């Protein structure tokens, strides 16, 4: 389950409550109705198995709600120790522990790591870089490389007093046993294609699970946009609904046109985010979605004079859109017909010739795409030889290299990237064993250990309740000043 800080603030802990309930755990409150811990729901009351849940909080969630991470980890540890009903948490922990031992990790460390269920970025870092690599589509050939990036950045475990220990193989074992990827949506303003965070987190998680399990998980959103109304829907349905009601809607397009440059940019951004979902969840983005986007933004099926708008407001946005569609064809996500291929290649090439290379992530340094375009527009009847030559010159001028040299350099860059992944140890938290198999560790585990720090001079400490009193006094003083100001204003009415 993906955990976001902004979502938790809006839904006030529904995700966390869901995780606890699945595990057969409930919060424990003090006399002031504050959560102070967790406790088990007895098996006789639960009357079902305890469900295992892996949690993937964002970096912001980790920073804003460290207390929730502690409580959620307590829930995992509490639930895993129980045997009153079928316990999938315990079963999975036993499997993970055995696999870690087989990989060479010491038994005591394997036992601890096997009960880790919370994984996110290393302390201080935010984002898993899935969106960046997805956008630089000329830099990778297979989505396996993107899954590796997700695991590399999200492979830090939190729990049992540890705060961000490097444990990518433990994350992989958890991914292998995951069959559903879940996120929540509480906002009616921001959609799953409005920014790259949605696909880099939920999409990245889904991709990583698919690569480890060999099959795609059910990837769903728990939609909580209206009070007292909750529904679960597939990511495919969510993307389709947003496309129809927003991005392919003539009224939305008219609204964006009024924003000129920025509106054109929003149009290109949604295509980029559609691409992100295509790569991370290919089962959720079928060819129909690309054909409909092409029909609206390239063929102008609604007669909105959209090409003229792009030419005047932001021609590079149109270049980005056509290039991304061509890239989806080049990478075999979209099996477009020959007419569509030629039309897109011609639109992209003419835009480059007239406006120069946009140099966005997938155009400037993407010799594979540009070579494909050259091959298509060189077909008799597509574009004139003069335009073909001018296109090549524009692309080569942008990087001051021939297309052939760009392709050679890119191949070398790809090799360096892949070699960097391959050099990673298959078991990065594996400890060096002492001589003769004594099992003693010679290296420490990377990360942070949570410890209570006691000040020698207690009189200098400001307890949390004291800090709260200072805040209350400040607020009261502010209210007093506001009241004085209102009295001096002579009771003037609003708007004066």
Please provide a written account of the structure.
With 496 residues, the chain is of the alpha+beta class. It has 2 domains: 234 residues, no CATH class; 176 residues, no CATH class. The protein is built from 22 helices and 11 strands. It has a 4-stranded antiparallel sheet with strand order 5-6-7-11. A 3-stranded mixed sheet has the order 8-9-10. A two-stranded parallel ribbon has the order 1-4. Helix 14 packs parallel to helix 17. The protein is elongated. The two termini are 52 Å apart.
Indicate the topology.
Blueprint: E1 2-3, H1 5-11, H2 14-23, E2 25-29, E3 35-40, H3 43-46, E4 56-57, H4 59-64, H5 66-80, H6 88-102, H7 107-113, E5 118-120, H8 130-135, H9 144-154, E6 156-159, E7 162-166, H10 168-176, E8 180-185, H11 197-213, E9 218-226, E10 229-234, H12 235-247, H13 250-257, H14 261-280, H15 287-297, H16 306-313, H17 315-330, H18 338-355, H19 367-377, H20 385-399, H21 403-422, E11 448-449, H22 464-488
Parallel strand pairs: 1-4, 8-9
Antiparallel strand pairs: 2-3, 5-6, 6-7, 7-11, 9-10
Helix pairs in contact: 2-5, 6-7, 6-10, 9-11, 10-11, 11-14, 13-14, 14-17, 16-17, 17-18, 18-19, 18-20, 19-21
Residues in helices, as a percent range: 40-55%
The quaternary state of the protein chains shown equals single chain
- Helix tally equals 22
Q: Estimate the strand proportion.
A: 5-15%
Distance between termini?
Answer: 52 Å
- Mean pLDDT figure: 88
* Coarse morphology: elongated
In the predicted model, the low-confidence regions spanning at least 5 consecutive residues are 425-445, 455-496
């Amino acid at each position: 389950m993906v955990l976001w800080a902004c979502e938790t603030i809006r839904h006030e802990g529904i995700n966390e409550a869901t995780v606890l309930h699945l595990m057969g755990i409930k919060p424990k409150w003090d006399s002031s109705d504050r959560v102070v811990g967790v406790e088990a729901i007895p098996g006789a009351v639960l009357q079902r198995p305890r469900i295992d849940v892996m949690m993937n909080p964002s970096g912001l969630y980790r920073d804003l709600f460290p207390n929730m991470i502690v409580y959620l980890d307590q829930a995992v540890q509490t639930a895993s120790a129980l045997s009153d009903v079928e316990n999938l948490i315990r079963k999975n922990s036993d499997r993970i522990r055995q696999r870690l031992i087989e990989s060479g990790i010491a038994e005591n460390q394997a036992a601890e790591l096997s009960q880790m269920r919370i994984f996110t970025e290393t302390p201080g870092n935010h984002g898993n870089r899935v969106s960046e690599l997805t956008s630089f589509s000329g830099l990778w050939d297979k989505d396996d490389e993107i899954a590796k990036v997700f695991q590399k950045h999200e492979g830090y475990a939190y729990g049992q007093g540890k705060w961000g220990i490097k444990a990518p193989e433990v994350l992989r074992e958890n991914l292998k046993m995951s069959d559903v990827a879940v996120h929540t949506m509480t906002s009616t303003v921001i959609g799953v294609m409005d920014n790259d965070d949605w696909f880099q987190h939920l999409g990245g998680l889904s991709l990583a699970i698919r690569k480890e399990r060999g099959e795609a998980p059910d990837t769903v959103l728990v939609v909580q946009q209206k009070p007292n109304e909750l529904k679960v829907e597939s990511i495919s349905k969510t993307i389709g609904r947003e496309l129809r009601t927003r991005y392919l809607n003539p009224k939305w397009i008219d609204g964006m046109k009024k924003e000129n440059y920025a509106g054109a940019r929003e149009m290109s951004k949604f295509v980029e985010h559609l691409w992100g979902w295509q790569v991370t969840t290919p089962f959720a983005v079928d060819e129909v979605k690309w054909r409909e986007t092409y029909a609206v933004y390239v063929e102008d099926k609604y007669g909105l004079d959209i090409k003229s708008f792009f030419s005047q407001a932001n021609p590079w946005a149109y270049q980005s859109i056509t290039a991304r569609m061509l890239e989806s064809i080049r990478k075999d996500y979209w099996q477009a017909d020959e007419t569509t291929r030629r039309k897109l290649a011609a639109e992209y090439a003419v835009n480059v010739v007239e406006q120069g290379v946009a140099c966005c992530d997938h155009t400037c340094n993407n010799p594979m795409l540009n070579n494909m375009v050259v091959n298509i527009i060189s077909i008799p009847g597509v574009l004139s030889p003069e335009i073909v030559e001018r296109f090549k010159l524009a692309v080569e001028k942008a990087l001051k290299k021939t297309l052939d040299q760009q392709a050679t350099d890119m191949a070398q860059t790809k090799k360096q990237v892949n070699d960097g992944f391959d050099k990673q140890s298959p078991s990065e938290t594996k400890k060096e064993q002492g001589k003769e198999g004594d099992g003693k560790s010679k290296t420490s585990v990377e990360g942070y250990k949570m410890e209570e720090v006691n000040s020698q001079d207690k009189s200098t400490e400001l307890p949390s309740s004291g800090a709260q009193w200072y805040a209350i006094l400040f607020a009261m003083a502010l209210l007093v000043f506001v009241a004085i100001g209102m009295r001096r204003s002579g009771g003037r009415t609003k708007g004066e």
